[in-house]
Amino acid sequence: MKPASKPKIIDITKVSEYEKYLYRCLIGPFARYKRRVEYLKTAIAKGFHKKLLIFNEGVVGQIEYSPAEVSYYPIVGDKTTVVNCIWVLKKAKGHSFGKQLLDNAIKGAKGADSLATIALENHWSPWFKKSEMERLGFRPLESIKVAHKTKYKGTVFSIYLMWMPIAERAKPPTWNKQKILEGVDSCIAHPLYHPQAYEQKRILYIVQ
């Protein structure tokens, strides 16, 4: 049996060999759709990074992060780096690859005092689960209960603002709760993706 290779993490904003992964996730179709292209054009110039974890010659994990001002999310924080996405394929679980990706992002987030992201609870998607973000070291600061206007009508789920201080002087970030209701238009695979065909400004509404 061929021995397992050592995992390696590469920054694909700097390595053209894996450029297609700037426009797609670990699985799914490759497409340079307009909103993603426009987002990357601005975000990469301002500190956006996407990194892949390669193991046994396959791409099995990814992380995207950027300064708060060019994040997918309406998160505001002084010296805050926002994790747009972190994902490890199910077949590669059990190797602490998520932690390795996050540690690599922390090292790459020059000048950051903390990391922030969002997490979901009771959402039908398997991604961005609050419990998984907590295992990585994030803690919840605030949350809102919402429902989707078109998908799984009547299903209520929670969106959390998550935070991880990495310096003693770190200050908690804030977020624009009304803006988060508009969803995400820069990643077609995101659980909160706002399709271009859906013309209403918000895809979510708050449930009291």
Q: Please work out how many helical segments DSSP would assign.
A: 4
Number of domains: 1
Biggest sheet: strands side by side, in what order?
A: 1-2-3-5-6-8-7-10
Number of strands: 10
Unreliable stretches (pLDDT < 50, length at least 5) are: none
The 3D shape can be described as: globular
Radius of gyration: 17 Å
**What's the level 1 CATH class?**
Alpha Beta
Oligomer: single chain
> What's the CATH H-level superfamily name?
Gcn5-related N-acetyltransferase (GNAT)
Tell me the major beta sheet: 8 strands, mixed
The termini sit apart by 56 Å
- Amount of helix: 10-25%
The CATH architecture can be named as 3-Layer(aba) Sandwich
Q: Which structural class should the secondary elements be placed in?
A: alpha+beta
Give a written overview of the molecule.
Helix content is 16%, strand content 31%. It has one domain (8-206): 3-Layer(aba) Sandwich (Aminopeptidase). It has four helices and ten strands. The model has no long low-confidence stretch (mean pLDDT 93). The longest helix is centred in the middle third of the chain and has 12 residues, at 97-108. The chain is globular. It is of the alpha+beta class and 208 residues long. The protein has helices at residues 34-43, 97-108, 130-136, 177-180; strands spanning 8-11, 49-55, 58-67, 75-76, 80-88, 114-121, 139-148, 156-165, 174-175, 204-206. β7 (139-148) and β8 form a beta hairpin. The strands form two sheets. Strands 1-2-3-5-6-8-7-10 form an eight-stranded mixed β-sheet, with helices on one face. Strands 4-9 form a two-stranded antiparallel sheet.
